[in-house]
UniProtKB/TrEMBL annotation:
UniProt gene name: srtB
UniProt key word Hydrolase: yes
EC number: 3.4.22.71
Alphabetical UniProt keywords: Hydrolase
Lineage: Bacteria, Bacillati, Bacillota, Clostridia, Lachnospirales
Organism: Petralouisia muris
Descriptive protein name: Class B sortase
Amino acid sequence: MKFEKKSILSVLFIVVFGAAVSLVSFRTGNVSFSGDAAASVELSLETAADSVKHTDESGNVTIDFEMLQEWNPDIYAWITVPGTSIDYPVLQKSDAEDPYDNYYLNHTVDLEEGLPGAIYSQPVNQKDFMDSVTVLYGHNMKNGKMFTSLHEFEDSDFFEKNHQIMVYTPDGTLTYEIFAAVDFSDALIPYEYEFSDSAQVQKYLEDVENSTGNFREGTDVSQENRILTLSTCYSGRDDRRLLIEAVLTDDAV
């Protein structure tokens, strides 16, 4: 399937999760580490990137997953979307019995109940990102945190200039090329489509292609590829989701 460019009205949405969302306060987790780490490290969403993400002289990035998993053992990856403020750990509830568990929809990385939640996948997805389609979820927050800045991809100029997603795991670095930013239904994607069936993967790609949005010209994507979907909501449109679609181009280890 070859995606061609379509036009989209660029609008930056701000989400409001109920009348009280502007009063939400963020809980900071204090975690002490031993060994090579500092004797006491204050780790929170605001400080995590500076504490655990390191770039060497060649530009290679490493993530201190040992430190992250002391903070919360459900952390299994790290996502960075260059050009945006998205630079967060990725979680999945390890003891969930429901394959469509949404624990981190309303629990923070510190296991506190409430917003902003966390960037997470459901247990239906493997943690190695080798499923045909892996879906990551994150809130569209009034303060710009989490997946809010995905809405920048609704702007065609921004979409053309920013095209990568980086996912870091304990086993290596995954590089994705963004091929679409679309207005999609609020369907639970891994439930609606059986991604172990290549025909269902193809149907999903066709549904994405037939949606309204921005598409990267000349990008070939098929059911044989590894697809990453980033999903967030709109303000005042509970029945729709913004999806950022990307295809794996490099899985260096």
